[in-house]
Amino acid sequence: MGAAGAGYARPMTAEITLSTITLGVRDVEASRRFYVDGLGFRSILDVPRPEDVTVLYAAALAAGATSVSAPVEREWGGVSACVADPDGFRWDFVHNPNFRIDPDGTVHLGGN
Questions:
Q1: pTM of the complete model
Q2: Strand pairing category for 100-101 and 107-108
């Protein structure tokens, strides 16, 4: 494994998907081209269970992130946490029980 993976003691064994990654960027279209078109990231992901936030948070800390906010239940019914990666970029892990993605990619943020 190359230098990028050399610092990890062991890979995560559970498959986890994310519902939201929030990146603060200067140029949204350029970043979308980079992450989605260039790297193949999906523009919509899913965190299906609240406990996935805690798993992602712990994995990020183990990989060298710094805690910004520990996993906490939010007033809107979800769970979120935030870490800063080794370069200081913040990553929010969020489970929203009202977030749904239809097979055609339509996103719903309400309970319907």
A1: 0.59
A2: antiparallel
